[in-house]
Amino acid sequence: VKCVGCGKMLGVPYALCVNGFKIVAGKGKALTDYHLSFGDRRKEVGMIAESNKTAGVFGLKNLSSGIWTVCYPGKEEMYYENGKTVTLIPGTRIVIGTKTVQVIQ
Fold this sequence. Notes:
There is one protein chain. This protein is mainly beta and 105 residues long. The chain is built from one helix and ten strands, in the order βββαβββββββ. The protein has a six-stranded antiparallel β-sheet with strand order 2-1-10-9-6-7. Strands 3-4-5-8 form a four-stranded antiparallel β-sheet. A hairpin with a 2-residue loop joins strand 1 and strand 2. The relative contact order is 0.21.
């Protein structure tokens, strides 16, 4: 993933890509309504968290009131409601409302 500020390549495991935004997967980073629909920057829709069981494994916790449709590579669609966490695996697609968030490496 390339830093939008300096253009340097960053050695990060994952990022979320939606609406032209790239959100680097880091503990405490948030996916906001602004990222999805240019809405409120303070309204958190999802929060990136590191696994309590496995260091270096990250997920996106659903903080929204909606149910997310998740498609892991090679798997059937799954559904994640509020409070559930999607494991970030490159190639995974997360549909939140009308927007699709792509997990990239």
